[in-house]
Structures are given as structure tokens and as C-alpha cells.
Design brief:
Length: about 280
């Protein structure tokens, strides 16, 4: 039975080496330089037929079957994502023709994008505006509709990478439900009350679900059935909780949103300099 866990796992390295000089150089690069909005030529990232066959063989060694077009698409997209970061590292003349160093450089690029996010502490007025803009997320929910991708077992870090990829590619629920494993109660729950969700997935799952925003993938969230990546389609709310009662949660959500926006901006800045070519 197909699961993205192993597919993503073989593509994701786990290097934990810190290059201090590299960190300093990359920080200066992304904070003190700007990419022109037009007039530049994108650098091609060529995925040759040989490289594509290599990716297919790596998949076959794990699954003992050929990858579907959808699976191959995800593998190629992940390869392109990693290559864009690697090319940027090579531009600083620090890349080496070594698979382990390639993994370490890509990992370090991700760390830099996470650590270089800087912004001032929000005022109460800013938090209040954020609260009003996202009032649905801080309201009592009476009915919820959501889709989920089910995994009987899975590593949190691997599934978090799947979530990032689903959001980055803007994959809608109807196209994403082919991934993961079959769930005997279906891969979506429509117009369900919190009580009905508790009966199916448990209290912890429901409590976490009710605090998540709609319109984007998130997770994984544990349930009594396994692990789930989720996408909320619809919320029906009764009334909003007072700002004072949820201010701490608003603060955490605001900081998380600012950080995610900054990381996405850094990534898009890098990606805009490249284009993928598949041969």
C-alpha cells in the first residue's frame, strides 16, 4: 500500500553539520542583496533523461514497482527544489561534487532561511487587527468539513515535509487524496459537529483540528486511528471568543505566520532565478 513516508524519506537527508562561515555569507546574501523583478535570465535546472531514470530506479528499489506519473511528479519537484538551493550554494563557490556535502549544503540553506527571519515584537494593536482579520480562527465552531490524508504510521518530520510540499504546490484536496493509505471511514468528513469528530478520531485530534485555519494543509495530527495530514474546507461558527481569552494564541499564530511568510519569500527569491527543464 502506497505511502509518501518512504518516498519522501529517501529524498530527505538528515545532516546536522553547521558551517559558520557559510551561515554568515548566506545571511549577508539574503539580507543585503535584491533580485531584480525583471530583466534577468532564469538559470535552467536541467533534469536529464539519465537523472530521471536514476530517480525512477531509486523509487523502484524502495517499492519494487514503477512510480506512477503523480509520484514521479512529486519526486521531480523535490529534486528541483533541492537543486535550486544547491545552485545558490554553488554560486558562493562552496559546493562540492559529493552527495553528502550536497545534502549538508541544502540542509544549511534551509536553516539559514529559518534563522534569518527578523521582525519587531507586535503591539497589542497589531495583534488585535490580526485577530479581527482571522476572527473565524478564534470562534466557537459548530460544524466543520475537512479532508485528510491518512498514515497508519509515520515520522513527524517526514510528514511535515509532505505538508510543506502540498502547500507549496497548491495541491487541492481532490488531487491529494490519492496519496497516503486507505482509511476505512473515508478521506473526508462533511458538515460534522465536534462531537461527531470526537467519536471518529478522538478528543486530542478534534481539539487540535478546531484550532487550525481553513484553506491550507497542516499536520500531522495524531488520532486513535493513526496520523493525518488535514485540509479544512469549511467552518460554521457561532460566536467569537473575546480577544483577551485568546490573546496568547493570537500572538503565537501571528509570529508563526510572519516566520512562514518570510521563509516563503526567501525561497521564492531563490527559485525565481531558476527554471526546471526535464529531458
Amino acid at each position: 500500500m502506497f505511502s509518501l513516508k518512504k518516498v519522501l524519506k529517501y529524498m530527505l537527508g538528515e545532516p546536522y553539520i553547521h558551517f559558520i562561515v557559510l551561515g554568515s555569507l548566506l545571511y549577508l546574501l539574503y539580507t543585503n542583496t535584491s533580485t531584480p523583478s525583471n530583466g534577468y535570465t532564469q538559470k535552467p535546472i536541467v533534469i536529464t533523461a539519465i537523472e530521471k531514470e536514476k530517480l525512477k530506479k531509486e523509487f523502484y528499489l524502495i517499492w519494487e514497482r514503477n512510480a506512477s506519473n503523480q509520484e514521479l511528479g512529486l519526486i521531480i519537484d523535490k529534486y528541483f527544489y533541492d537543486e535550486a538551493l544547491l545552485y545558490e550554494a554553488e554560486a558562493l563557490d562552496i559546493a562540492r561534487n559529493d552527495s553528502e556535502i550536497r545534502k549538508k549544503l541544502i540542509h544549511k540553506m534551509k536553516l539559514i532561511m529559518h534563522s534569518s527571519t527578523q521582525f519587531t515584537e507586535p503591539t497589542e494593536e497589531i495583534l488585535s487587527l490580526y485577530y479581527q482579520k482571522n476572527i473565524e480562527e478564534y470562534s466557537h465552531i459548530t460544524v466543520l468539513s475537512f479532508a485528510h490524508i491518512y498514515f497508519l504510521k509515520g515520522e513527524t518530520k517526514v510528514l511535515e515535509e509532505v505538508v510543506k510540499q502540498l502547500n507549496r504546490l497548491h495541491i487541492p484536496p481532490k488531487d491529494a487524496l490519492q496519496y497516503g493509505e486507505a482509511f476505512n471511514k473515508g478521506n473526508q468528513m462533511l458538515h460534522a459537529t465536534p462531537t461527531e469528530i470526537i467519536e471518529t478520531f478522538g478528543r486530542y485530534f478534534t481539539r487540535e483540528l478546531l484550532q487550525k485555519p481553513k484553506g491550507k494543509w497542516f499536520g500531522p495530527i495524531h488520532s486513535k486511528e493513526g496520523m493525518h495530514i488535514l485540509y479544512i474546507k469549511e467552518k460554521v461558527i457561532a460566536k467569537a471568543y473575546p480577544f483577551e481569552d485568546v490573546e496568547s494564541r493570537v500572538y503565537q499564530d501571528y509570529l508563526r505566520q510572519r516566520k512562514n511568510d518570510s521563509i516563503e519569500k526567501s525561497y521564492q527569491k531563490i527559485l525565481s532565478q531558476y527554471r526546471v527543464e526535464i529531458q
